[in-house]
Amino acid sequence: MAEEIINRVANSKLKVIDLEDYYPPGDRVLFDIKDWLLEGLVLREKEFRQLVSKHDWSQYKDSYVALYCSTDAIVPDWAYMLITIQLQNISKLTVIGSLNFLESVLYTAIISNLNISIYKDMPVIIKGCSNKPVPSNALVLLSQRLKPVAKSIMFGEACSSVPLYKRK
Q: Can you tell me the distance from the alpha carbon of 58 to that of 89, in angstroms, rounded to the nearest whole number?
């Protein structure tokens, strides 16, 4: 007679947090302003303003936009602000920086609003592998938020987790 296989993880109090589940849907766009600069290096205000006013911003509808300059140009803050104003009410969010920075900003807001009371006095595993770009910073922020409430914090999978914290 074959013994019944029992999933001890499913029957345990262990809580698994997969940050991939919180990944905000929407396109990510890396917007390089170098093509709007003279020889990719010099911002000429009049020409820059014309390019901003004539650009089709509707293509960024419901996207997350990261503004950056891929050259060593010194770009004044107002230039990024001018673009951001154009993207207001079009993009979901606009930041200055890389796509990784954009994801970090998104996850900072998500983790700040996460209801962590459900993890009170519970052993928690923060899932490590994901198919979506979950920034390392999000893992750090989540572990900081969980430490005051969780009984223990682990990282990885239930079958092979790394212990990070255990309340004494």
A: 10
Whether the per-residue pLDDT at 82 is higher than 90: the answer is: yes
- Biggest alpha carbon–alpha carbon distance for the chain: 83
Rounded to two decimals, the pTM is: 0.84
In whole angstroms, give the CA distance from residue 120 to residue 167.
Answer: 12
Residue 134 tokens read as 């979950």
CA pair distance 43, 69, nearest whole angstrom: 11
Q: At what angle do helices 136-146 and 99-112 cross, to 10 degrees?
A: 20
Structure tokens at 131: 């198919």
Q: Which residues pair with 17 in a beta bridge?
A: 126
Q: Write out the two tokens for 146.
A: 């969980």
